[in-house]
Amino acid sequence: MTTMLDPLVTADTWAREGRAIAIATVMETWGSAPRPAGSHLVIDGEGNFEGSVSGGCVEGAVITEALEVITSGAPKMLEFGVADETAWRVGLSCGGRIRVYVEKLN
Amino acid sequence: MRLDHLAELNAARNARKAAILITDTASGETQVLVEGQPVPAHLAEAVEKAFRSGKSGLIDIEGRLLFLNVHLPPPRIVAIGAVHITQGLARLAPVIGYDLTIIDPRTAFATPERFEGVDLIADWPEDVLKARGLDPYTALAAVTHDPKIDDFALAEALRRGCFYVGALGSRKTHARRVERLLEAGVTQEQIAKIRAPIGLDIGASSPEEIALAILAQIVEAFRRRSLSGGAE
């Protein structure tokens, strides 16, 4: 077997350990987005995570939202764009835009 | 997403079956479709397209925004030749998530000491490849230089539609190989799909660098493969 880290396998393992889990998924990309649609970031209730939805640009923000989703149980669609358009928010320095869906694993 | 759906999806992936996870973005409801299972009529076209392209994406079906996440089996590599280059390949392939099988009938080369933890088979490709079917998700790299060992595997890989077929050897060596394959009944069109000299041209010199060049070429072949049949 391969040694590549697999966020969906991690999600299953963590859930079976009794951890609360949120799964973030890149659902749409425009321009030069770093990770393609279908990419996952898996987050537990303590903020531990594995995988990626960007090149590290927006993971922090997604994790914060994921913790809320774990509490509320309601899925959320997030959108991130270019960093310099919205300088006070996180963004993608590569110039792309992405939509990330965050849901709780039940 | 439901945990039982996640488990079902992971089981299909582990069994090298293509699968799609469908998420209704409004409700968060999920559904798993494994290749070969019946598909609801309203999803049939989108699902077929997704399996063929391997591309995940959002679609609007009857006013509902659905996300189809496509999971195709990870490509695997069958390498003919338990040589220095494949020792390098054995270290690199796991990093990008490709399974690797190495076949070489020469028991002096194919030793567990030289290939610790690797799926290594000390037998003739003729005998091994009948049992372990090559498929369109498989890359074949023949690196022994020895026609007795390489040729059958190359012809078989072309017949089975492997997405990548590469052969080590100079242009001169390859010209002789082409003649032999033609005599063996392989068509010119099929032979043209063989990557020879093997590997992307990065000026690779050491066996490990050649392994990297081969692996990079395999990744390129998979990511840029034609979507019509999957094998070309």
Explain the overall architecture:
The complex is a heterodimer of chains A (106) and B (232). Chain A is of the alpha+beta class and 106 residues long. Chain A has one domain (7-104). In chain A, 23% of the residues lie in helices and 29% in strands. The longest helix of chain A has 14 residues, at 59-72. Chain A is globular. The termini of chain A are far apart. With 232 residues, chain B is of the alpha/beta class. Chain B folds into two domains: 3-71, no CATH class; 76-223, NAD(P)-binding Rossmann-like Domain (Rossmann fold). Chain B contains eight helices and nine strands. Chain B has helices at residues 3-14, 44-53, 84-96, 125-131, 147-160, 171-183, 188-191, 207-223; strands at residues 19-24, 30-34, 57-61, 64-71, 76-80, 99-103, 119-121, 138-142, 164-167. Chain B has a five-stranded parallel sheet with strand order 7-6-5-8-9, with helices on both faces. The two termini of chain B are 35 Å apart. Chain A binds chain B through residues 1-4, 6, 8-9, 11-12, 15, 23, 25, 27-28, 36-38, 74-75, 77, 99, 101, 103-106, and chain B through 1-3, 6-7, 9-10, 13, 23, 25, 28, 55-58, 67, 69-70, 74, 93-99.
SS elements, strand count of chain B: 9
Q: Could you say which overall geometry of chain A the principal axes of the C-alpha atoms support? A: globular
Indicate the structural class of chain A.
Answer: alpha+beta
**Poorly predicted segments of chain B:** 228-232
What is the helix content of chain A? 10-25%
The total of beta strands of chain A comes to 5
Roughly what is the average pLDDT of chain B, rounded to an integer? Answer: 92
Q: What name does the CATH topology of the largest domain in chain B carry?
A: Rossmann fold
Secondary structure: helix percent of chain B: 25-40%
Largest interface: A-B, 26 and 26 residues
The order of strands across the largest sheet of chain A is: 3-2-1-5-4
- Distance between termini of chain A? 28 Å
Tell the overall outline of chain B. elongated
The gyration radius over C-alpha positions of chain A equals 14 Å
Give the CATH architecture of the largest domain in chain B: 3-Layer(aba) Sandwich
Q: Roughly what fraction of the amino acids of chain B lie in strands? A: 15-25%
The pLDDT mean of chain A sits at: 87
Whole-number total of structural domains of chain B: 2
- Beginning-to-end CA distance, first to last residue of chain B: 35 Å
Task: Report the sheet with the most strands of chain A, covering strand number, pairing sense and barrel closure.
Answer: 5 strands, antiparallel
Order of helices and strands of chain A: HEEEHEE
